[in-house]
Structure formats: C-alpha cells, structure tokens
Amino acid sequence: MRDDVGVRGLRGALTPLAGALVVGGALWLAITPAASTVRLTSEATRGVTLQTMRPSPTSDVDPTLANAVDASLARRGVAIRTNNLAMFLQDVAPALRARQTQQFLNLRAVGVSVTYRRAEPWQNLRGQTGTFRVSMRYVLHGSRLDQAATDVGYTYAFRKGRLWMTSDRALDQAIGSNRQPWDFGPIAVLRRPNIVVIVNQGQLAKARSLADETVAAAKRVRKTWPGQLQIVPYVVALREPQVLTEIPPTLPGAEPAQVRAMVSPAIGSIQPAGGWVVIRQTTMSPAQLNHVLLHLLPVRLGDGAPRWLAEGMAQYAEIQALPAAERAAKRRELTKQELTQLTRLPADEAFVADPSVEGASVGGAGAKRARDALSLRAVEQLIAKAGVKQVTEYYRQVARRGYNDAARDRLMQEYTGFTQARLVESVRGSSS
Questions:
Q1: Residue 152 and residue 175: Cα distance in Å, rounded?
Q2: Which residue stretches of 136-200 are H helix?
Q3: Does residue 10 sit within a domain?
C-alpha cells in the first residue's frame, strides 16, 4: 500500500551540522561533518518527514545524532518498500546484519509498508551514542486495516565519523520489543484473498490446513454473528512461544489460541487497528477456531463490552461446532448449587489472567470453568428471550459505547429488554 505523501516541510528540519539540499527530487544529507554525503532520495520523507522528527526539545539528545538517526530510520522504511536490502543494512553494524537481514526478508514476506519514528531517548546517552524507543508503524498489504504500530529499541553510535546501529535488542525487556511475527525466522507466508497464515519455513502444508480450517470456521461463525469479522484474518502459528507476547491477551491463561491487538498509533486511540490470531498449540478443533474468531470482535468493534458478554458469545459460537451430546454437557457445567447461589454476573476483573491485578480471578481451573459456563448461560438466556439479532446488536453497540456500568445497563435494556438483575434471575431459574 503506497503512501503518497510528498516531500514537504523540510525547511528548518536540519541543523547546520546536518544540512539538506533538495535537487532533482532527491534529498542530499550529510549525517555528520566527517562523513561522506549520503544520497537519500525524496522517497525517504514519505510518511516520516524530517520535520516531524526534530531533536528533543529538552536538548537531551545530541542534534547531530538525532538527525542522523532520523535519516537512517527514514531510509530503513524506504528500503522495505523498495525491496532494497543494501539500503536496509547500510547503517547496521556487522554483528547485527544476519539478524537484520532475516527481519528484512520476513517483512517482505508478510507484505508491509513500514515507517519508523524516533520516540524518546531511553538510556546510555553519552554525546553521540544513544538508545531510543522507536515507533515502528506498519500497514499490512491487502488487509484493508488501518496503520498499526509496535515499539522497538535501537542503539546508535558514531564510530570514526560514521553512524551505526549497534544494538536492536537493548529494550527487549523494558518495552517487550522484538515479539512480532517478522522477528522470528525464517518464516513462510500463505496468502489468500480472505486469509493470511504465517508459519515457520518448511511448514506450508500446515499453513494450507490452517487456512482451510479458519475459512470454514469464519463461515460457521457468521451464522451466529450476522456481521463482519476482521475482513482478512491474520493467523500466526510459529513454534516460538514468545511471539506476540508483549501485549495483554484478550484471552487469559494457557489457551490453545489467543487474539493479540495490532495497536493503533493514533494519539488517544483505544481502538486497535486489527488483530492477530495466534495459534498456541499443534492442532485446533473446529469448536476452538469458532471461539477464537469471535474474540476478533473486540478488535473490530471496540472493547467496551462486559467480559462476560464477550466470553459468552465466544463460548456460544464454540458449542455450535460441537456434537449434540458435547453441547449439552457444556451447558451442564454449572451445578445447581452454583446457579442457586448466583447473585451477579462475572466482573471484568474475573477474566484477568494476571494475579497481580486487584480482583483478578486466581481460583484456578474451577473458577475459570464456572466463570466461562456462567458467561455462556447468560448469553444463551439473552438469545432465548430476545433473539440472536438483538443480542448481536447489543454486542455491537456496547462494544463501542460501553464505557461504564451505567452505559452497559442502559444498552442492555434498550436492545434486549433485560437489566443485569433480571438476567441473573433468569439464569438462576433456568434448568441445567
């Protein structure tokens, strides 16, 4: 996907030590007084302009280093777009080139347009050496998704008058960087009009199977959910367990698959640009695929829905793919005693996997079973009394507008006729 922003706003963007001259559509940039002039084409300013990447206003970054890093980052994005490995590695220290070469090949295989924006300096600033948090902003080709972003941490230094990227792992622990699908490799990518699957190299047969199964699951899910899912699901099935682990999971615990957000770079936005479906085990059953695809809805619609509703909808989609006997057994997981003692629907905190979060569910498998079964029973009661169309419309609205309990209750009553208290009473009175 091409970014058609032209060269603009260059005046005043560079200090005298790193001057620029636009001649014949090309930007000539001297990154350091001692270095040779580097030809940086006007393409380098598309999407990441030097004007928007000024040195820190607090003067905690050497201006020469800042401008040189900005130019290097701009060049890096151009290299990916133009399939120019030599340009991508131009400022990379020899010790990093093998890993950076693999990342370049992976990015090209996934199919992305990338721009890099220098953010705040992080540590070890000593004149012309610095570690920076860098916002890596990407658009997945053909996905019809908006721009997403992830953070990386790069260390740069001048050596003998020449800029080098000396580390690409300095902030792995601090910001959880280098956990995206292209950070592991080599990878293989299967691309179809309605799905993309990313696997380790040599596993295309696995990718084809996952693609077929996911497309079939999406057709089943749409019978439950009469609306669009993410138009092109991105399924990541790498053997490395650390892939996409830096973002809090939509699904807690050791799930067979999880949905991870493609974070939006828009200031103040809480709406992700899209979602990755991350397969965490060797095989996935049709029921499990149904479940995880429903968890793409918070990505597309918003994350304002109560967690019991999001999980209940996913559980409801899951049991549609089960044989009748298993479906009935799933519905009987709540005991009569648990139903009799029911006083409220599960709070959002009950779905948090991190026990450090106050109020989080830490009761183990039994607590999770009861929570999930109650969520399913609540959704089934809503569907039985109000119908699938009204319940899915309630989900659609509350996902976008459920910013507090009062809004959630008002929307539930508007679209289903229930209040939470009435729904609890209805669930308690239902037969097991």
A1: 8
A2: 172-175
A3: no
